[in-house]
Amino acid sequence: MSRYAAPGSDGAVMNYQSRYDHWIGGAYVAPKQGGYFENPTPVTGAPFTEIARGTADDVERALDAAHEAAPAWGRTPAAERAAVLNRIAQRMEDHLEELAVAESWENGKPVREALAADIPLAIDHFRYFAGAIRAQEGSLSEIDDDTVAYHFHEPLGVVAQIIPWNFPILMATWKLAPALAAGNAVVLKPAEQTPASIHFWMSLIADLLPPGVVNIVNGFGAEAGKPLASSPRVAKVAFTGETTTGRLIMQYASENLKPVTLELGGKSPNIFFDDVSTADDDFFDKALEGFTMFALNQGEVCTCPSRALIQRGHYREFLDAGIARTEKIVQGHPLDTETMVGAQASNDQFEKILSYLDIGKQEGAKALTGGTRAELGGELEGGFYVKPTILEGNNSMRVFQEEIFGPVVAVTGFSDFDDAMTTANDTLYGLGAGVWTRDGNTAYRAGRTIQAGRVWTNCYHAYPAHAAFGGYKQSGIGRETHRMMLDHYQQTKNLLVSYSPKKLGFF
Amino acid sequence: MASAEGADGFAAGLADGRAKGPAAAGGPAPGDPERVAVTDEAAAMIRQLTGQHGPLMFHQSGGCCDGSSPMCYQLGELRTGDSDVLLGRLEVDGVEEPVPFWMSASQFAYWSHTHLTVDVVPGRGSGFSLEAPEGVRFLIRSRLMDDGG
């Protein structure tokens, strides 16, 4: 096992500044009202930097900078914008370890996930949209011999993006890459739990972007998020978070008649049909890993497979194997390269998970493993650690219906295909789902029946840029990733052109 | 603990029939069971926030990230409608108007068997909830409705 030195200590691969202001117009700008707030690492609970506490004044300044930059950026040839995105990707690849450690220290996630998934995915995402924008074409419709409709893609202008704290750099990238590729300028507000790693990212790539194309305003939702989301000066608001704030953002956007895209989470079913267990082979092993994916990123994933539905025929043996696999999870210091589960991102998140373990027990759910906080001792004593937990119960329990956002899976059984589909769809949400079977027909029918935006079939938690991601039902509006995301950041301009010299004859 | 006041209104089942709950607009009727309460610590924060922002409301969130957390706004900031239920009005000493606590009707269908208590913990909560800049986060603690408590 090796451990990266903590940022700020001897031998650290990266260090945070002691303070971050807003990044506006290509420079750091102090908050107008002069306030800052501390940013603790969930690894130990200790603050490691302080962050500008933004208000409406700061948002306005960022919008000024973005509006100044947007026209030129929007007119920049797609090939040049793509080149900028590719340079950003290369710079990130050159600093992959630093970015991974930065994210791990701020968010609490195991550095091996950041090294192997978060940062490489973010890098690929910039490259993907660099390619997508170069390959994008408008269209023309030949209405008749004299009339042609041309369709051009035009940027929206200045867009607002509000980023969640579970993947501070990757989720920012999901929003930034398509917006920038499409020619928009951005005002981005990171989550107040994880405001610093995006600034470290910016410190690496700032010289690659024209000033004002990306602006970062920090602060709390009520003080900085609201003036941004409700501003008539933004052409669109993109938000990842929860349902009440999603409604509020739609409400603000409706006042300005602006579009929104929302990603609001889920309660994703992970379905294991009997035939998974017909052989003790690689596929069975893969399925067990798929079951255990609930613990990825400490369960702080919108698509956490937090409901495992196991068919009755192999229920006990598969579940026992799943418990055994879960108990092999190495939990510890997030900067240890062997650590699989690190710290929850914040104290309130930690407390919320414990409150769910409590109501789960009250409702009669049985903790098959875990079920408590993890006492890791030493310097981790002040951090926020929860044992990977398997709860057994039924789908009407609240632990089956709400996104706990912790390393907690709720398990129940099903009798047949229809029973599985009924349970899978008995939820307010529809973001992700998993289907595991050796039967192609079953897999196909299940995937088409489940009301979710993505059905991982014999896999889980893969996030390639070239696959669309987004929610059915209350999980949100719009999609992220995939080139169709460009549509969410572009207007369609139709030029309807007549090449006839003849009048119509009406007047 | 302060308790939620049974307010004027009429009891009605929810449109989808999955759960019986307080009427969407009127809130719980006299005699309806208490559904939501508040701890002394949370009440103190509500008092403080009322002093800073004026009358308040809660709306229970769901979904990703800070979902499952109660969101506290200035009264009327979030537009509630027929798709919401008013679970109760929190009586807080020193706060003139009881603070309404709302939840979407669809979510209430899955939550109706549990009693909710608004608590507060140190934290850095996200969303637009008013308490986050104070370094705390409102949190819901739950118990079963029929446990006599």
From TrEMBL, chain A:
Q: Which species expresses this protein natively? A: Streptomyces nanshensis
Q: Which residues form a coiled coil?
A: none
Which family does the UniProt entry place this protein in? Belongs to the aldehyde dehydrogenase family.
GO molecular function of the protein, one example?
A: oxidoreductase activity, acting on the aldehyde or oxo group of donors, NAD or NADP as acceptor
- Which PANTHER family does the UniProt record give? ALDEHYDE DEHYDROGENASE B-RELATED (PTHR43111:SF1)
Q: Which residues form the active site?
A: 263
Q: Does the keyword Oxidoreductase apply?
A: yes
Alphabetized UniProt keyword annotations:
Oxidoreductase
Q: Which residue intervals define the domain Aldehyde dehydrogenase in the entry?
A: 30-494
Q: What is this protein called?
A: Aldehyde dehydrogenase
Return the InterPro entries for the record: Ald_DH/histidinol_DH, Ald_DH_C, Ald_DH_CS_CYS, Ald_DH_CS_GLU, Ald_DH_N, Aldehyde_DH_dom
Top-level taxon of the source organism: Bacteria
